[in-house]
Amino acid sequence: MTENGGPGGPIEHGFPHLATVRASITALFRRLSADGIRAHATSITPAFDAADDLHLGAQRVAAATVRALRLPDARMVVSFRAMEEAATVELAAGPEYFVEVNDRFRTHRRDLAAALSHEVAHVLLHRLDLRFPGAAENELLTDTAAAYLGAGWLLLDAYREDALTHQRFGYLTPEEFGYVLAKRAALFGEDPSPWFTSPRAYEAYVRGRALAERDHRRAPLAAAGPLARRRYAKARRSAASGSAAASGSGAGAAGGPVAGDGSAAYRFEQDGSGGGLRVSFPCPVCAQRLRLPVRGRLRARCGLCHSVLDCLT
Length: 313
Known about the structure:
Elements: E1 3-4, H1 18-38, H2 54-68, E2 75-81, E3 87-89, E4 96-102, H3 112-128, H4 135-148, H5 153-157, E5 160-161, E6 166-169, H6 174-188, H7 199-215, H8 226-240, E7 267-270, E8 277-282, E9 289-293, E10 297-301, E11 308-312
Parallel strand pairs: 2-4
Antiparallel strand pairs: 1-6, 3-4, 5-6, 7-8, 8-9, 10-11
Helix pairs in contact: 1-4, 2-3, 3-4, 4-6, 6-7
């Protein structure tokens, strides 16, 4: 896992990896199932006790993270050495996995759980045989999995940025971590706000939460605001009158993508069986695209995450 730190070190902000984050959430639902995701309802809150022996404390925190990610037959063997990365893990057949942690955590023990959560998530994805094609995308998937399944809020809480310190763990931006945590919070009805010890981490969570809440207010969802509804109605009329989308080219009418991310768009197309116009859009919970008939108010159930959505198509 990478670590950005030191005075003057730049920290990336915003939502540049949003498409991969959403694809990661979809992939987790597909691999674990809706019931498997909901088995991770309890977030981890491990802390390194100041009275702990270094190695015994590290093993205790690693074991707590393993339990949180539901890997009961995996054992983490933690060691410390001088290295550029925050931590690395050797992915093998198990049940023992060897995690090497940067020597600086011998004294900076506050963030040890954050470093371990990313590495244990690597083990989880390895055991699930879940991966993306590129190395960078795989690291984003790992951060997303850690945060969405209840262990990765620690990675965001390790973010600090002030006149003396610029520190961020992982590959997601702080705001993207906030987005994933807000998605999880909405699914499980939890509020991670009181857990943050870093004020800047909490601010990033709030920004991510605002974007996550917007996902539930996009047309054709019934909770969409008046402006979004007007744009949707105009796009629907255009599609119905014979636009490229209605003729089946797939160009579609976009419904307000965020930060250039097309996964947030709705698209219209003619039903090939002669059933009229249909609209496709991402589920606000798992980001799987849904395809519904355009016929006014209806309730739709996502086949992947089982969320029931109130829609105005």
